[in-house]
Amino acid sequence: MEISALTRSVVKRNHAVIAPDGYINSNVPGWENCTVNVIINEQMGANLCQTLITAAADCKLKGVTTASQIFFYVVEGSCKANIGTLSKTLTKGQFVYIPIGKEYAFDEISEGTQLLTFHKVYQKLEGYDVPPVYFGDAADIEGPIYMNDEALRIQVLLPADLGFDMAVNIFTYQTGGNLPMVETHIMEHGLLYLQGQGIYMLDHEWYPIKKGDSIWMAPYCQQWFTAMGKEPAVYIYYKNVNRFPT
Ligand code: UGY
Ligand code: MN
Fold it and tell me: Is the interface score ipTM higher than 0.95?
């Protein structure tokens, strides 16, 4: 029998592991007929927001980006994204980046569709335009090997343009792969596990992690990961980039 007083989730000063067993739904105005789980937010000390939207029948999402840009990624299912004059059907692994100041509407969302969102308050860079709406498909993006290790591949989903102040990448570890060092860096991460399992070290604590889990890593939260199990471990993650350290 499972004991309801136990969870793998933790929320600490500089990191959090959020497993789905503790989700409580939020109502987000304009996002209808869906459950919304706000997994990472400034309320926990983060500078980004990460949500997971699970569609019920007749789900529709409408809104306008103001201070924050939003990145939508289809984890499961399909939907149609309408942003300004652009409309596109998105399926698993496809995504759209919506810059600030845009109206958006998602419809034709199949029941059970799961959308991951990353939100960040946009910091304009003098001399560079605000990025345009950007659609993409992870399946079309090469994953070069990372740090000379054939077991590690990183796909960079957004263009390398200084107008962007956020990156979203997909990191794939073949079985037996691990981060070749403990990373210690100013950038922050929000992350969703898409496949497999492994052990994450966060601020010198050790956590078993699997598909469906999310992680927040604050700036300078030390991090290391090793994949486990019989299939590759895959996660999608957010990172703030391209701005002067203040
Ligand atoms: O891009 C990164 O900082 C990445 N290698 N970090 C991570 O996977 N925890
Ligand atoms: Mn990192």
Answer: yes
